[in-house]
């Protein structure tokens, strides 16, 4: 009897071992055993032209300087961030990536932050990141110095020309994706932005220049809030839809101040006001109502609110949302299928994982017609 039992066990043992192996394979296929990405050395050329070697994918990141953290969140890297700048912790209406990821404010501080500050090497080293992403704060030489002092790879990012969102921006998004192991997500983000820009442009490309309304945007933020005389040439929401921005005839690019008398001579058909500076416009209206009442846009009730998108560099998703709203106002026929609120939430949802229009409306008034003097 013992011999028979021993023989049966000998026959069954290989089958039991195979069953056990099969069970393990089944568990892996079901996703209960995490797949560990293989870490390997990788060389990248950052946007300052520096060759940086680091082990990818990284697990711990920091992002310093205007706009750097925003690009990390686009690539779904918020969970890898181990510290943020103090400036990111302060209340700042319209900084959409912080609305989407409020828990980032609970992370340790890695320095004051801001466009005119120097990186805090001690604070950066203290949170032990695998990489430091940086935008605007440093040039090639300073990036090399920061890397040497901290012993941490420093990767310089760029938004490129903020008026057009050029390839530098797309390369930055792609580079972050490679470094944090989110290549597919980065590819999707770049494709989405390019498709949005293409869609906006194609809607109005057949409209003759002579049939376009003259438009102006005032109260544009520029290192602080300003009144109606603060404007922007090559204003992205207008550029994307081929609108006739009266300021572009100056030949300038970016934000600057004009004389109010120049606005009267331009006399735009449609006036957009940045919500960030709207309070200053209403105050100025009370002091000089005749100036405003002389404008055709004010007479005809063609004054509209725009959600500010410049907040610690460009909130790209809000700039696109503004573009669709401006298109709906300036080119109603070409944008008749667009609901600006739904479109905005679609953009916020894709890029930041959360529909944020209601929060933007709460803080900044949202998309609406404005009535000066009331």
UniProtKB/TrEMBL annotation:
Signal sequence annotation: 1-19
Keyword Cell membrane: no
Keyword Signal set for record: yes
Pfam families xref list: Peripla_BP_2
UniProt keyword terms in alphabetical order: Signal
Domain Fe/B12 periplasmic-binding: 60-334
SUPFAM superfamilies registered for this protein in UniProt: Helical backbone' metal receptor
PANTHER family: MOLYBDATE-BINDING PROTEIN MOLA, VITAMIN B12-BINDING PROTEIN
Family (UniProt): Belongs to the bacterial solute-binding protein 8 family.
Record-given protein name: Vitamin B12 ABC transporter, B12-binding component BtuF
Organism ancestry: Bacteria, Bacillati, Bacillota, Clostridia, Eubacteriales
């Amino acid at each position: 009897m013992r011999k028979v039992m021993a023989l049966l066990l000998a026959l069954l043992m290989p089958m039991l071992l195979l069953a056990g192996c099969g069970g393990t394979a089944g568990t892996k296929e079901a996703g209960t055993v995490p797949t560990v990405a293989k870490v390997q050395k990788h060389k990248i050329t950052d946007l300052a032209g520096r060759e940086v070697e680091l082990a990818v994918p990284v697990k711990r990141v920091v992002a310093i300087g205007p706009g750097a953290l925003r690009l990390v969140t686009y690539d779904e890297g918020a969970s890898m961030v181990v510290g943020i700048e103090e400036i990111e912790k302060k209340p700042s209406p319209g900084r959409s990536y912080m609305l989407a990821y409020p828990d980032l404010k609970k992370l340790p501080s890695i320095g004051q932050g801001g466009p005119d500050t120097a990186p805090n090497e001690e604070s950066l080293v203290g949170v032990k990141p695998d990489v430091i992403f940086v935008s605007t704060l440093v040039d090639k030489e300073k990036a090399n110095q920061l890397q040497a002092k901290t012993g941490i790879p420093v990767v310089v990012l760029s938004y490129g020309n903020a008026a057009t969102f050029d390839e530098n921006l797309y390369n930055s998004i792609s580079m972050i994706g490679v470094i944090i192991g989110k290549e597919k997500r980065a590819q999707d983000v770049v494709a989405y932005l390019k498709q949005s820009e293409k869609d906006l442009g194609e809607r109005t490309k057949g409209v003759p220049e002579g049939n376009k309304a003259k438009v102006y945007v005032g109260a544009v933020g520029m290192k602080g809030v300003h009144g109606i005389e603060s404007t922007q040439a090559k204003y992205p929401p207008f550029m994307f839809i081929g609108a006739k921005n009266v300021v572009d005839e100056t030949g300038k690019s970016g934000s600057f101040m004009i004389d109010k008398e120049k606005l009267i001579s331009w006399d735009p058909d449609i006036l957009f006001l940045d919500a960030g500076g709207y309070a200053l416009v209403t105050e100025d209206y009370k002091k000089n109502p005749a100036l405003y009442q002389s404008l055709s846009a004010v007479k005809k009730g063609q004054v509209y609110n725009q959600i500010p998108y410049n907040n610690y560099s460009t909130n790209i998703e809000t700039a696109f949302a503004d573009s669709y709203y401006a298109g709906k106002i300036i080119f109603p026929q070409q944008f008749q299928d667009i609901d600006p609120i739904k479109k905005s939430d679609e953009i916020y949802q894709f890029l930041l994982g959360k529909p944020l229009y209601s929060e933007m409306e709460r803080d900044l008034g949202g998309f609406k017609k404005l009535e000066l003097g009331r």
